[in-house]
Amino acid sequence: MPSVAANPIPSLENLMTDMTQDALEIAGVRYRSRLLVGTGKYKDLDETGRAIEASGAEIVTVAIRRTNIGQNPDEPNLLDVVPPDRYTILPNTAGCYTAEEAVRTCRLARELLDGHKLVKLEVLADQKTLFPNVVETLKAAEVLIKDGFDVMVYTSDDPIIARELAAMGCVAVMPLAGLIGSGMGICNPWNLRIILEEATVPVLVDAGVGTASDATIAMELGCAGVLMNSAIAHADHPVLMAQAMHHAVVAGRAAYLAGRMPRKLYASASSPLDGTLR
After folding, report:
1. Maximum CA pair distance of the chain?
2. Cβ atoms within 10 A of the Cβ of 157, count?
3. In which residues is 1-deoxy-D-xylulose 5-phosphate bound (predicted)?
4. For residues 180 and 38, what is the distance between their CA atoms, to the nearest angstrom?
5. Binding residue per annotation — 49?
6. Residue from 43, 117, 120, 128 carrying the catalytic annotation
7. What's the average pLDDT block by block, 10 residues per block, for the chain (278 residues)?
8. Is 120 a catalytic residue?
């Protein structure tokens, strides 16, 4: 009979060490945090900075068409509260409805950020739903990749489109969980499962997260990370919600790595009955 020492139970310390080494890798760069956050919709820049700090995020996405990062010298600069020496700035193309607009916006971001290559591509179909226009998204992705950009791409939860974007060379695919700003959570986990099964690049849920449990579910499904803005900025207490989202993503990732118990139709005893006195 093997001794207990032959099959040691991993200590909590060892498990936590494994978690600290479990990094998110995007375009060859490793990040400790798997939570990515936006910078819009806060009441002011002070709240923006405090919420982002509380989230523990290392990648912060910025809408170039709506946010001043130096192009307007007489206006408050977002980079004063989100300094590039502390955060990876992820320019995004929010507000673009054509491939041409999106490509032009990414090139502007590259100029403003001294040759920065990592961008988040989103090309929207209409103002009512903010659903992605996948045809224009594919066009823009092809141009940007050829132009040397590292493209993280917002897309629908269509597994075929996600597969095509990864095959083109996008460094991360970001299917929506629900419509942008809806807070509806993961509306179609089945499509997301297919995308994750076929993934050759990191898959991050983008859009639709409403509260901490939504973020945890995304991570438990196996997503590499979660990007959110409205869920934090529109909360009654954004800084507190940012903290909650941080813990939710960490917990979801740990649960995914731990492996959940199988679902059973009927109950089973918590303690084994074999060998007990009758």
Report:
1. 83
2. 22
3. 181, 207-208, 229-230
4. 12
5. no
6. 120
7. 46 57 93 96 94 97 86 84 94 96 96 92 93 96 98 96 97 93 89 95 94 96 96 97 97 94 82 60
8. yes
